Amino acid sequence: MTAPLGRVTPVVRVAPAKLNLTLAVVGRRPDGFHLLHSVMATLDLADRLALDPAFGPVDRLHVVRLGGSPSRDLGPEQENLVLRAIGAARRAIRAAGDDRPLPALAVRLEKRIPVAAGLGGGSSDAVAALDGALEAWGVPDLLDAEARSVVATSLGSDCPFFLAGGWASVEGRGEHVRPLPPPRGGPLGVVLVTPAVAVPTRAAFERYAAGIRPAGGAALASSTHLVTELQAGLSTTLFLERAGVLAFANDLVPAAADLVPDLTRTRRALSRLLERPVGQSGSGPTLWALSPSKADALGDAAIVRAALADGLLSVPGDGAPFVAAAALAGASPVMSS
Ligand code: C5P
Questions:
Q1: Mutation probe of ligand 1 site: the residue of 157, 159, 170, 281 with most atoms within 8 A of C-beta
Q2: pLDDT for the residue 335
Q3: Ligand 1 centroid vs 20 CA: distance in angstroms?
C-alpha cells in the first residue's frame, strides 16, 4: 500500500558502512576518474536516517553524532549528499513523467560511521536517502534498478555498490557492481581503527595520479584472484589465510600515507599488537584487522583501546581515534538498527 503523492509517509533507513578488502587502480578515464577493481563488503556499523514531512517548503537535514563517531565536521560535500540525493530523486521522478507535487522532507541522520574515513558513510547515507525519499513519497516502484543505478552513480562512485550491499566486486568508476557470495561459515569480524584525520577521496586519488603509488599491479592480481575464489566458494578459514595478501592489495595506501604522516607507523604497530595483518579501507585512513567473528573483533577492540590508554599505541590525528568492532555481511546482509 503506497501513499498518494503530495503526502509523506515517515520512513526509516539503515545506511551501512563498507570495507574494501581489495582496491586496485587499473586506469584513468578521459574525465579524470580512475578505473577500479575492488572487492567490497557491507558492515553492521551503520548510520540511520529518519525521513518525515518538513515544516516549510525546503528539504532539511539534522545530523546527530552517536557511538563514538568523531566530532569533526561533516564538511559541506558530505552534508549535502543526503539533500542532493533527495533532489536527484525528485528530478528522476519528474524525468519518469510524474509531475505531481513532492513535499519537502525533513531528514534526521544519526551518524555512527566516521566521515572521510574510507568507509563509504556519505555514499551510503545518500543511497539510503534516495531509497527512503521514494518510499516516503509513495513511489518506490517508479524507478527501476537501472534508473536507480544511474542516479546513484551521479551522486558518487561508491553509491552504486550500496544499492545492493552485501559482498560484491566493483569495477569501472564504481558503477559496475557484481554480487559475490560471502565466505562460507561467517559472518567474519573486523576491528576498525580510524585516526581522527579526514582523508578526502579526491585528495587521495590526486596523490595517486601524481605518482604516489605502488609499483607492480599486485593489488589487481590479488583482487581478481579473490573474486575467482569467492565465486568458487571460499570458507572463512581460507579467506582469513588470505588476510596477509589482502592487507597489501590496496593501491591507495601510499597516497593515504602521504596525506597522513605516521599512518604507516601506526599500521605496523597495530599489526604487531594484534599479531595480524592490517589493511586499509578505500582511500583511508581507516585501518582494519580481520577475525573469525564479531566476538573476536570485540576482543581486538579492547586490546587496541587498552594499548591507547597505556600509551603503547600512538595514532595520528586531532584526538582519539575511532575504534570499533564490526561484522562483515554474511550470507544474508547483516544490518544493525
Ligand atoms: O565519486 P566521488 O564523488 O566519491 O569521488 C570523489 C573524487 O575522487 C572524484 O572527484 C575524483 O577526483 C576521485 N575519484 C577518482 N576515481 C574514482 C572515484 C573517485 O578519481 N573511481
A1: 157
A2: 46
A3: 15
